[in-house]
């Protein structure tokens, strides 16, 4: 191509990119026809983008396609179908495909996923089945890319029978095949089937596989199996993947009733990571019981709001709820962190604290002894400190 031809191509590409309505594109289209640049792949891509964004009349794209030798290239057709499949007008992709098919266009392995993607946008199960039949007749059904697309779109439409049939007929399956059917079972509420299929996987799992099966565990409340999946996640080095971490958290919350300490830690983590959706999910599990107050007091403690923790404790007492050991621990710790000595009875009464520990019905644990050791060092009871160290 001459220098002038190259310059014209880039000028036209820039003009097409700037098009914001079809009227201006018609003038550019005339230049494309006279310059023979209409067959250039870059030009075709830009033209398709204009149609996808601004065209609601199928005459324009159909007339555009008539300029090509259909037996020579499928690129313009696949690109146009794929562009409409990703647009707010996904049914245009199906209409264009039908028009081209009636006029002699033979679909290939790139046409199928684009058409199926448009079917999935509005769950057109009738169109999916019709296109499934076409792929079978044209020999495209042997391609794993086409098979995976069919499994995926059947799953989206919650036709697990259709998805399972395609899956069972596959001679070779990859992780996309397995994950597509597992996610389809989960979407359709067939959680046991999804777990059973997960156990059959003979290829390396990916993030989507773990997210799907963890969702099934959470729905069924299978804590032990969920722990096993969590272990497998760590073994496969997916422990730091955000989607997997969220799925693990969701599974644990749904599988058992956490106490105030766990909920406080989880809410603090959600706040730090900015996961507001999961923070709301945790709040759904907090009813108006002592756990609720433990969590509120614990959150105040985490945020170093000692006075707020005391207000929550007073509200608990006024509501008639009986505080438990977790509640007292949270309040005392909040007072300690915030320097509220009087409220927390931290006026250096180390001897009284030791006497209290002696009257406990159970032996003190490491946490209690550690707290007492810290108090002894703070208030100069070094003799007691030595005794505590021996005990520890």
TrEMBL record:
Repeat recorded as keyword: yes
UniProt superkingdom: Eukaryota
Transmembrane segments: none
Keyword ATP-binding applies: no
Keywords: Repeat
A single BP term in Gene Ontology: RNA modification
GO molecular function: RNA binding
Gene3D superfamilies: Tetratricopeptide repeat domain
Name assigned to this protein: Pentatricopeptide repeat-containing protein
